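Predict the 3D structure for this chain.
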Amino acid sequence: MKFSASSAWENREKYDVIVLGAGHAGCEAALASARLGQKTLIFTVNIESIAMMPCNPNIGGSSKGHLVKEIDALGGEMGRVIDQTFIQSKMLNKSKGPAVHSLRAQADKEQYTRKMRRVLENQEGLDIRQDEVVNILVGGGKVTGVQTCSGAVYFCKAVILCTGTYLRARCIYGDVSKNTGPNGLSAANELSECLMELGISMRRYKTGTPARIDRRSVDFSKMEEQKGDDRIVPFSFGTDPKEIQISQVSCWLTYTNEKTHEIIRKNLDRSPLFSGMIEGTGPRYCPSIEDKVMKFADKNRHQVFIEPEGLETNEMYIGGMSSSLPEDVQYEMYRTVPGLEQVKIIRNAYAIEYDCIDARQLRPTLEFKQIEGLYSAGQMNGSSGYEEAAAQGIMAGINAVRKIQGKEEFVLDRSEAYIGVLIDDLVTKESHEPYRMMTSRAEYRLLLRQDNADQRLTEKGYKLGLISEKRYQSLKQKEQWIEEEVKRLRSTHVGTSPKVQKLLEQNNSTPLSSGITLAELIRRPELSYDSLKEMDEKRPELPQRYAEEIKEQIDIFIKYEGYILRQKKQVEQFKKLEQKKIPQNIDYDQVKSLRLEGRQKLKEYRPESIGQASRISGISPADISVLLIYLNGAKKE
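Done. Predicted structure below.
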């Protein structure tokens, strides 16, 4: 949007950091900035939409739970808020190894939003403003401020884009198309034009959401009840587990069937996805029910989860059946699902198209390569999910502040955190669909478990200034307990006494033929620290607050020690490549013997290290070898 000089006016207050958007990325970015001492302003199109959950009513899930734990370990807020507002909690993948255990919690959506809003409102150094920003002001290649739709100018030193799915947003179902963002909120239609004028490459993506239904119209007797865990594990390492052992609300499982699929197939010509009305690319790993039926034609049913949206509402979410089919078809297909025969829809399912950026334009700090002081986080970067957004938000907030303060940038690599994997994938890999975090994307996932996120990242959060002294010392005490107990278990021997043999028999474990240490017994798959309690006569009393966490860490470390040490050696090799920096002013045309494609990719991406360069598609091992030889020669000169 263009303004005449007379229409613009300068807001007298000066800010260090301005955040555009108060979704999950914006909240973490603004809180990190303010907590690190910078005067911060966050804009939102509607104050009621702060930390809104326009899609699924939960936090966490496979690999996403890892991200939330890491955000918390760095000093972020998402884990704390969900611990105070969840209505059901479940640890996923418990039948598998600890590397893929992932915590997931159903949220009371309204309470989550209210709680996060209160956190923002009470944060010292943070102001909230309901308004639409239409211009990013840039001078000399640096951000200088923003301008709102009223013409007001706010000057600042850094801007963080956290616009989610609101840029030129369009909600669609059937032949109905509305130029709005999620939940009918106003779309941001002017900012895209400004970004393109600044030379930023934009993309058009699409996501979707299922219908919301009235729980009074659901027959739960035809569904399978899905209860929460007996022992609730908190997301935040600062939450006392005793305080969150609450009565939980159930979710429900049902399935589509051939009748459902036939209705969908019969109406594909009315689906915007297949008619060409939707141009954006949708997420591969969270497809609409139309996509599922067409792509998995061999399957005669798909899971459908019926999930409560909160304690004070009858609204329920139909997980697994997002759609953009017309309203009459939605009714017809939903009512073929067992338990939904008489269902009443409160909100139609819809697809949403929106603008986002090509994240390869960003540095690992999430700052634009070509515009100093301009950062981007969340779905704006082509990712999907609340957790991925929040993870990028806290990193962008931290780095914007460190740039202003003249401090070293803060980047997590792939061996340190899922956050590192997420951001590295976004800024180095070409993607043509919304990015979703998965455990399979992490090469060192045995080291990057959610249970040890505090041991990996809390010291970093403490050094940054986001973790209190009390919390940091609490972690050090927990680590000392783990270290001392592992040492004691390795040196404590038990013999072949009748008591020991009986206990082993009770646990379906092979009797002993000679003495053995307790640590060696714990290595057996069927045994654990807890199961050996009766034969461990000198076991100390563990601190109650961290007892379960300590026991879990002992079991994992002892059972998987060989694999853990092997991955640590792999990380050492990885670090060598990551630490080999590439000068940003390097002239790749002067690097002889580079293949043409490799040279083109290096010019396009301008990677910051040899490690980063090695992960860019189109750059071969031969290119890396040539580049290393060139850099080593330049260093000698």
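The longest strand covers residues 202-209.
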